[in-house]
Design a protein that fits this description.
Elements (H helix, E strand, L loop, with lengths): L3 E3 L5 E3 L5 H5 L19 E5 L5 E5 L13 H15 L4 E6 L11 E6 L5 E6 L6 H13 L3 E6 L11 E7 L2 E6 L1 E7 L2 E6 L3 E2 H9 L3 E13 L2 E13 H34 L1
Parallel strand pairs: 7-8, 8-9, 11-15
Antiparallel strand pairs: 1-2, 3-4, 5-6, 6-7, 9-10, 10-13, 11-12, 14-15
């Protein structure tokens, strides 16, 4: 059940962007509108879910189609991500395929594109996936210079082990409440600590304009609802300014250790001359 399809004359149709006039021209019309799947090229038709979500469905089961198995929840989350990205002024391409210059081997649920061309794939994952599968798929995006963030409304075992965030929708707000961290300095030590929940569009635009980066933490703790999670070698979404601050702190610590070693060596030589 994809959100996009090919119309007559190879016209790309995005159900999340169709205005009412365009949609009324393809939904429940006679004769039927000419629609085809972008992946398997089989005939399709326009549908509307009980919640009002517009999408496309195959006329008959196509077992080999990449879009097979996408649930209504999966489609709703793709749509929410795309709308959040577009609200920031960036482009959101649903069910994006590689460009001619890309190595390929991927199909992004939502490909965010910043005004300066930065690309981030937002992959919705509600079904089971191993950490190794996620790493392999993330690497395929990296080969084409594309960042990848895994998004789920479920507490998956790969959450915070891959670049990821847990999302929820409450009272009309679409927020991320896991996977985001901030730098904390305390008692001359620094660590990454779970950040407060934030509206997803802020995460999206931060990734697309470079203000949010990926960092790692050896031992990391998170909470979501009433559950706590302890992750080893966590992969976190963090602020660029915090990354620079941490680098500065580490450099200062290295310089201090260097000065201490030099002082100790001078003392040792002075003692040897006595």
């Amino acid at each position: 059940m994809p959100l996009t399809a090919m119309g007559a004359h190879a016209q790309l149709l995005d159900s999340t962007r169709c205005d009412d006039d365009t949609w009324s021209g393809i939904h429940k019309v006679h004769p039927r509108a000419e629609l085809a799947c972008r992946d398997c090229h089989a005939p399709m038709h326009a549908k509307v879910s009980s919640s009002g979500l517009r999408f496309f469905a195959h006329d008959s089961l196509q077992p080999g189609c990449p879009s097979l198995g996408e649930t209504a929840a999966h489609l709703e989350l793709k749509r929410a991500i795309a709308l959040a990205i577009r609200s920031t002024g960036c482009r959101a391409v649903l069910e994006a395929v590689p460009a001619a210059e890309d190595t390929g081997g991927w199909r992004a649920d939502v490909l965010g594109i910043s005004p300066d061309g930065r690309r981030i794939a937002f992959e919705v994952q509600l079904a089971g996936m191993t950490i190794e599968e996620g790493r392999q798929r993330t690497s395929r995006y990296a080969e084409d210079g594309i960042g990848c963030v895994w998004v789920s409304s479920k507490q998956a075992p790969w959450m915070t082990v891959l670049p990821s965030c847990h999302v929820r929708t409450e009272d009309g707000r679409f927020t991320a409440d896991r996977g985001l961290a901030r730098l904390v300095t305390q008692d001359e030590s620094t660590r990454w600590e779970q950040a407060e929940p934030v509206e997803f569009h802020r995460v999206a635009v931060g990734l697309l304009d470079g203000r949010i980066e990926v960092a790692t933490e050896r031992h990391y703790a998170e909470t979501s609802g009433e559950r706590s999670y302890f992750i080893r070698d966590a992969v976190l979404l963090v602020g660029r300014d915090d990354v620079r601050k941490l680098a500065s702190i580490k450099e200062a610590a290295r310089e201090a250790k260097g000065r201490l070693r030099e002082a100790e060596e001078r003392l040792r030589l002075e003692q040897a001359r006595r």
